[in-house]
Amino acid sequence: MQLIDYRRVREAVSLADVLQTIDYMATRWTGERGYGDCPLGCGGGTRCCSFDLGKNLWFCHHCMEGGNPLDLFQKKYCYSLFQAAMHLCGMKGIEIPWIIE
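Predicted structure:
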């Protein structure tokens, strides 16, 4: 069984990378913090979701979903964590960080 080092994927892919990959534009930015519609389409309104590029985290105050960039990509496309990591590594040209046992 092949295992991925998800910690290394999270370190290699930024929230800005994922927002660009999913073609998302926040409605307002103040420094490294942004606000906008939920990228998952929950319908919570124009400022229900917050993004912190410095902390590499996002959170929707309407549907209560949030997390790191890998979580966002996983939830946006209904992938398993393994599938999300594989797709992001492929799209960003990152070597997949396999765990060697």
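Summary: The mean pLDDT is 94.
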